[in-house]
UniProtKB/TrEMBL annotation, chain A:
Protein name (Swiss-Prot/TrEMBL): Sugar ABC transporter permease
Organism superkingdom: Bacteria
Record-stated family: Belongs to the binding-protein-dependent transport system permease family.
InterPro entries linked: MetI-like, MetI-like_sf, UgpAE/MalFG_permease
GO terms for biological process, alphabetical: transmembrane transport
Originating species: Paenibacillus graminis
Location of the protein in the cell: Cell membrane
CDD domains: TM_PBP2 (cd06261)
UniProtKB/TrEMBL annotation, chain B:
Keyword Cell membrane attached: yes
Keyword terms of this UniProt record: Cell membrane, Membrane, Transmembrane, Transmembrane helix, Transport
Membrane topology, as annotated: Multi-pass membrane protein
Main location: membrane
This protein's name: Sugar ABC transporter permease
CDD domains listed in its UniProt record: TM_PBP2
Annotated PROSITE patterns: ABC_TM1 (PS50928)
UniProt-annotated location(s): Cell membrane
Pfam family, one: BPD_transp_1
Gene3D superfamilies per the UniProt record, alphabetical: MetI-like (1.10.3720.10)
Amino acid sequence: MIGGFIRNIIKDKVMLLMVLPGALWFLFFSYLPMMGTVIAFKEYRYSREGFWASIWGSKWVGWDNFKFLFTTNDAYIITRNTLLYNAVFILLGLVLSVVMAVVLAEIANKKLAKVYQTGMFLPYFLSWVVVGYFAFSFLSSESGVLNQILSYFGAEPVNWYSEKKYWPVILVLVYLWKALGYNSVVYLAAIMGIDKSLYEAAMIDGAGKFQQIKNITLPLLSPIITIMTLLAIGKIFYADFGLFYQVPRNSGTLYSVTNVIDTYVYQGLKSTGEIGMSTAAGLYQSVVGFVLVITSNYIVRKFNKDSALF
Amino acid sequence: MSTLVKKQRDFHKLSKTWNVLFNLFAGIFAFLCVFPFIFVVIISFTDEGVLARDGYSLFPAKWSLSAYRYVFESGDMLLRSYGVTILVTLLGTLLSLLFISFYAYAISRKSFRYRNFFAFFAFFTMLFNGGLVPTYIIVTQFLGLKDTIWALVMPLAVNAFYIMILRTFYSTSVPDALIESGKIDGAGEFRIFLTLVLPLSLPGLATIALFSTLGYWNDWFNALLYIDDPNLVPLQSMLMRIETSMQFIMQNSTNSSLSLEALRSMPQDTSRMAMVVLATGPIIFAYPFFQRYFIQGLTVGAVKE
């Protein structure tokens, strides 16, 4: 038995050597942190004697961290913000990127369509820091363009970075600006893959372009739309940290509308120092996220086995 | 022949009005996507005095190169950050390719007895993760990477999703028979990988390399978490830091002359925008080339084994 095991190892030694660096990476950067979630059930105390001593030395507090988290208003606010923003992103993102893909596919001049696509794809390649600067050039209260336009029409300038009510709209617009081009490429690729003879047949039957879109393009896109949406729902508990941290410039007055689970966990770690509660929030995110991914993947499998993640 | 095809295709087209409307719709959105960058470029070439008077403007009353002059003259900080970013990007992409291509190749080989175990070992990390705080504690206290260049390189080095993409690529573009023939000719596993498999999988590797290059170039999050040493701050993170310290000084500068002094030594509005332009420049130039591989990567990722 053991001899057989050793023989196998020797036989596969080259392959094992090949996976070794990656496997070690996963061990250190993924699996050890998974073990580290025990901190959520402890009152974490940093110890000079290093990592293990810190973990062992900290006192067990059971579910206290979670109790604190869920008795404050924070848990409600961050969950609500994360879910609502992502829901809007998924819905609007889906509709607009499908529309954009259809539009790009139908434009007669293919060179122009390519130029448009290249332009739309650009924001995807920029970092959130740069996008934050872009937003600032519009929203800055002293020199921003938006206030200049407002004053041109005789309206009062707005202090954008401290007015809560505008931020849901601003964040949605910035998200769409950055993601739309990228997402529509996925649908565009699917449209390009549709058998051209279907359109020929429809044309002979006298279907106009819009009837073709309605009766051929959209129905044939619906499987990939379903799958992309389900996979996005699987990730609905994770927010894009960059969007919610860089674009509102981490402005404290805006927290009630910009704080999501990811930014909350970061603040707990770096500024408020509530390690235990912040770990609890992170674990809550991971566990619910896990359940959602498994569920949505299960549903995807029912629709189309090939598109499921596993 | 060509006129015939052209005539036939005309039936597929939209009516003239709709075609114009579609063009406008896509064109305007595409323009809006590019516009903020053009705007920031214009701001960076605006005269500081004019900017203070009129605010950001598309047609500034006076142009000036002084922002760029300032950045390059007092550009120690910028040059250093450029250096850090370039180093991290090169080193990171290289390591990333090495780790990912080896791992993906091994789990793509049907003869590897433990392939399912290692495939799952990678895959599970896509489903569940320990979260930010435990990761932070492991990286800083267990691995001791805080304030080292490795804190910028290692966290992004491996990614289960890229492994899955590349594994699919290997199993679809490298035929088993080829590997068998290599074996018959007496080549060892490593030699087969290097001389037979790698050349065939270059497009796949290029895709991963570009994903990874972009990831490293644009990364600021790891610097935010792990870097306090001003000598190790990458570009994106430096842009952030300038901004935060500006805000800090503004908020606390009621009457102290010290903060006024500090404010004066900070890069002005135009210079900060110039830095944004300089940090984004390489991406803007490289990206029409990137784009093709990204689209390829998207479609490769969609096909499963």
